[in-house]
Amino acid sequence: QVHLVESGGGLAQPGGSLRLSCAASGFAFSEFYMSWARQAPGKDLEWVSGIYSGAGDAYYPDSVKGRFTISRDNAKNTVYLQMNSLKSEDTGVYYCVKGVPPGGPRGQGTQVTVAS
Asked: CB neighbours of 1 closer than 8 A, spacing ≥ 6?
């Protein structure tokens, strides 16, 4: 059974940074593409980053490109999202996703709030 547990969310000031982590279990983590997605209040789920099983090229939409960095540690079954230069519009619940959202299973999410 796929189990994804996100952590690292919280309150950050505009321009600040946060690092999210996702601990995965229940599947062969190193063999799967992993993603991060977010959902702001009243908005649809947005795919914000993805990384192949062997790392390499990552996906970022224009809204986060140059500010967010996804990485993974296959030995620890963990995927990370480093978020820099945070903006108020980055506020939302961030989900770790096995595969690509919205179809892939995801964790319970971690709240990120960017406010001064």
From this structure: 26
